[in-house]
Amino acid sequence: MLEGLATPSAMEALMIGRGASGTMRRASVLALLWQDASCPTPASSTESTSGLEPPGGLRVVLIEKSAHLRNHAGQVAFPGGRIEPGESPVQAALREASEEVGIEASGVEVLGELPPASVMASGFDVHTIVAWWTRPVALRPVDVGEVAAVHQVAVAGLLDPANRATWVLGQTHSGPVFCVGDLFIWGLTGHLLSGLFELAGWTRPWDASRCLEIPPRFFRGRT
């Protein structure tokens, strides 16, 4: 399904920081995909640039961070967090996903890992673990101090060109954003989703010149 993960170097030009700095703290996030057979993907009016399409009913698990966090408050993100001493990025991503929203590691099949991205705003090199959810279970915020809500977002909605734009912050900061329902998915997660879709060959042409300001709900204090 994501054959490009066999050559993750293809992602490097798409990532914030273009690889780990080697001097910052390390974190890991889980990009967890699953197929909801009860929700087939509607036909699209535009093809991807590669002609490839995602499986019908494909969803991705995202969290909405607590509004009270010091960093990234209110942002939509993948489950994840700091890599503890002695942990691999995979172990950390699975542990954090369990602690945050109740994902069971035994029901997750790891597909691959993207090159780490250096996020200067928070001082972390972030590893992204891409995985398939083989045994979905009901999810909820377990660590309510970190997680305000859990969202299982349809990939078809993320790929819809009408839901894509460029977020802007002042005159110097911008990046890809996905606007699905009432969610505004920007920052590192927007970059990672955009890179994943490029890697999978699912990206459809969209208007990068359409610029949107970040709603206050998704931008609280430090980024």
UniProtKB/TrEMBL annotation:
Xref: InterPro entries: CoAse (IPR045121), Nudix_hydrolase (IPR020476), NUDIX_hydrolase-like_dom_sf (IPR015797), NUDIX_hydrolase_CS (IPR020084), NUDIX_hydrolase_dom (IPR000086)
Pfam families in the cross-refs: NUDIX
CDD domains membership: NUDIX_CoAse_Nudt7
Family membership: Belongs to the Nudix hydrolase family.
Co-factor requirement: Mg(2+); Mn(2+)
Keywords associated with the record: Hydrolase, Magnesium, Manganese, Metal-binding
Protein source organism: Propioniciclava tarda
GO MF entry, a single one: metal ion binding
Protein name, as recorded: CoA pyrophosphatase
Domain (Nudix hydrolase): residue spans on this chain: 24-185
Top-level lineage group: Bacteria
Transmembrane segments: none
